[in-house]
Amino acid sequence: MHRIYFLLLALSFCQWSFAKTFLIADRYLDVEKGHYVDSPVIVIEDDRILSMTGDIERRQNSDQVINLAGMTLLPGLVDSHVHIEGNQSLHGFEKLGQSDQAALLSGVSNARDMLTAGITTIRNLGSKNYGDIALRDAINDGIIDGPRIFAAGPPLGITGGHCDSTLLPHEFGLKSRGAADGPWEVAAKVRENIKYGSDVIKFCATGGVMSKGTEVGVQQYTLEEMEILVEEAHRRGKIVAAHAHGTAGIKSAILAGADSIEHASFIDSEGIRLAKRNGTYLSMDIYVTEYILGRGAEAGILEENLAKERTVGKIQRENFRKAVVAGVKMVMGTDAGIYPHRESPRQLSRMVQFGMTPIQALQSATINAATLLKEQENFGSLRSGKYADIIAVRGDPLTNVSLLEDVSFVMKAGTIYKTP
Ligand code: ARG
């Protein structure tokens, strides 16, 4: 009995001795309810929000006060489709000369860029040799600065498909780590990825824009392969992201139970209906087309890939609008890595340009993304109990969402990475 009293006493002293942070600002955006709340006093203890309605008068001397008068607070952004090791100036054959170590070092600098741009969480959809998992762990261990990473590791795909290396001729015998054919090979590859730390399973359901020799609209995995992939991943508690541009591949991936469809460029009305019925998220990277067609040639993107992009970008944006009108669940996925990572928040204004309201665009980049990751209790909105992932902008992002392209303040899990 005495021991319990002693423990309680010790615990209460501990509580008092932890310094807290009081964060004040003009208002914050409640992304779940879709409106502003004026004059918040956010109390942060350790890495989490203790209260959204603190009393500044009751602070201790040791507590820190951050005054962001004139600013609007929002939850940290989530980009649901990133290649953190991507180097926007290394495309096509140039990329073959990059070692894993060099890619990882790009990842270190890209991670810092994304975080200071206000992106506090990313889902990394593909890393040739598990570099994203090393980056995730280094960030979690405080070795380097970066967003919280949910990592896929090597993406799965058919031999010769979009997720396999197709640049070199046969005598080099090059095969991507995630290449797998047939149901049991696919299941084994899912197990291998999980063994080495993948949080999410990414696979290529169709051809793609940036690969050589794949037809962007053509399905690659069979429905049977996709079904076993998803079943294996889900049984192990991992979500599944399907790269799919083509109409048939999109529908097969939805039917197989993928949690999100990446790109979804040629989705038709039946695909939209299926996504809605199954609660499948669409993650449509509608900003990147501007980079590929605008600056891609000088960045070394091959003509074959530019030509494919010319057949995709515009239709993808039209279909994005249709999916928004139909009310399909959406997350902001950008494919950052093809273009400079710090530009990722630019997609928000494109999402508004192509049919979303500003609050819908912001929800797709916060609470929707957290829900897709099954992490809505941990981040995605400003609420007590969640991680203190807080960003600030000057002005009214609900009238001008491009204000998110220039955030003044970034806090991730209670640590400040950028101040005005
Ligand atoms: N990683 C994708 C692919 O190669 C990028 C597609 C970019 N284009 C687009 N319009 N979203 O297929």
In short:
Helix content is 34%, strand content 20%. The protein is α/β, with parallel strands linked by helices.
Textual characterization of the structure:
With 420 residues, this protein is α/β, with parallel strands linked by helices. The chain has 2 domains: 2-76 and 381-418, Urease, subunit C, domain 1 (Roll), CATH 2.30.40.10; 77-372, TIM Barrel. Helices cover 34% and strands 20% of the residues. It has 12 helices and 15 strands. Strands 1, 2, 3, 4, 5, 13, 14 and 15 form an 8-stranded mixed beta sheet that branches. Helix 5 (223-235) links the parallel strand 9 and strand 10. Helix 6 runs parallel beside helix 7 (269-278). It is globular, with a radius of gyration of 22 Å. The model is unreliable at 11-15 (pLDDT under 50). The site of arginine has 12 residues, from helix 8 and helix 9.
Layout of helices and strands, plus pairs?
Layout: H1 2-17, E1 20-30, E2 35-38, E3 41-45, E4 48-51, E5 64-75, E6 77-82, H2 100-116, E7 119-124, H3 131-140, E8 148-151, H4 183-195, E9 200-204, H5 223-235, E10 239-244, H6 247-256, E11 260-263, H7 269-278, E12 281-283, H8 288-295, H9 303-326, H10 346-353, H11 358-364, H12 367-372, E13 390-394, E14 409-412, E15 415-418
Parallel strand pairs: 1-5, 6-7, 7-8, 9-10, 10-11, 11-12
Antiparallel strand pairs: 1-2, 1-3, 3-4, 5-13, 13-14, 14-15
Helix pairs in contact: 2-3, 4-5, 5-6, 6-7, 8-9, 10-11
Bound molecules: arginine.
